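SF4 helicase domain-containing protein
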Amino acid sequence: MLPPETAEIGLLSSIKEPRDLTTTLRVGVTQELFLLYGDVFQYLVDFHPEYEGQLPRREDVEAMFASTDQALKFTEGGELKFYVDELLALYTARQVSEAVRGRFGEGATRLSENPHEVVRLLLSDLQQLNTRRSRNVSFLDKDALQRLSWVEERVKASQAGEILGIPTGLKIFDDHQQGWQPGECGYIIGGKGVGKSWLVMYQACVAYRYGKRVMVLSPEMSWEECSLRVDVLLGCLMQREFSHEGLTSGKLVDLKAYQKWLTDLTSREDFICVDSADVGGGFTLASILDLMEEFQPDLTVLDGIHLIRGQAKDKGWEIIKAAADGMKAAAQRTKSVMIWTGQVDKDSNKNSGEPAISGGQAAYSKAAVEAANRVISLARDPGNPLRRTFKVPNNRSGREFLTKQRLAFEVDRGYIEQVDVEEPATFAGMPEV
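C-alpha cells:
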C-alpha cells in the first residue's frame, strides 16, 4: 500500500472533472476514510452542488488550505480507481489495527490467560468491521444533491447521443441509450443448446471493446474453449475475421493474422476467464464473491447459474435464489454489472422456436428472476439456422418487449447483431429532455 499522504493526494489530484467526484461518492468514499486530507475532500463535495456541479480551481484549493495542517500541492494524479482502492485499503488496515490493539492492549484480556476467548472476541470484532464496510446505505434526504450530478451526467449523455452505462450489444436497449447500469443484473434464459453462452460472451466482448474490465465465470466450458469464442466474437467486432470451426479444428487458419491479433490483445489485462478447475471443481456463491473482490470487474458473466454448488441439504431453487440474491448485492455494492444464464422449464424447452414470454418460465421457478433487472429469453428461429429470436419479458428500467426481436447469429465467424428491430410506440426508460 502507498503511504497515506501519497494515496490521499493522489486521489484528490485524480478528481479532475465533476464526474470523477461523482464516481468517488458512488463507490463509498467519504471524509471519514481520509487520515490527513478529509477536509479537502469534503470541501470538493460541498463546492460541487453549490456551484452548479463544477469543481473549484486547484490553485484556489491550495490557497484555502495553505495555512492549515492540511496544506497540499496537487500532482498530476493518475487512475482514479487505483487511488480509491488504496484509500479503502488504508482505511481498512487502520480499522483492523485498532481492533487488534483493542483486544491486546492495556486492560484487555491477556492472551496468555485465555487465548481462546481473545481469538473469539477478535474474530467477532473483525466480523462486525466487515459487516459495516459491506453496507450500502444512502440518506435520500441528506445525500439528495448527489443525485443532481448523476442526473446531469444522464442529461449530457442523452443530448450527446451517448449510451448510458455499458452497451448491451442489443439495439432495443442501446438505440435508446439504455446500457447496463451500475448495480444491475441481467438474466438470459433459453432452451438447451439455443446459444445462451454465445450471446452472453458476445455481450462481454461488447463491454470489453467499450473499455470495460470483464470477467467470465464458466462452470462448463474450459477457459481454452472460452478463449476461442472470444477470438471470433471480439475479432468480428474489431473487423478481424476468424472461423471458430477453423480455430478449434486447426484447419484454414491464417497463423500470421492470428498471431498479430493475439499480440494486439496483450496490450490490455481486462478480460478475465475462470473455469471450474480454478475453484476446485465447482463455483459457489462464496468463490464468486471472492473473484469479484480480487479482480474488480465492471461486468461479470456467470454462464449457468443453475450449475452453482451449495450445501447438500439445500434444494436446487434455494441454491439458485441465494446465489442470485448474493450476486445482486455484490453488484450493487461494487457498482458493477452481473449477467447470468439459465434454462427454461421443461414445457418451454419443448418449444425451442418460441422465446419465453414470462420470467416465470425460467427453470427452478422465479428463483433467479426476481433479482434480475432485465430478463432476455432466447430461442431458435425455425426458418433460419443462422438467426435467433428473443424477447424481454422483464425490464425494470424500461418497457418490456414481448414482440419477437431477431438476431443474426452467425457464430462461426462471431457475427451477432440485432436486425429487424420491433419496438413499442413509446419507450418508458428514457425521460424527455
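The longest helix spans residues 80-104.
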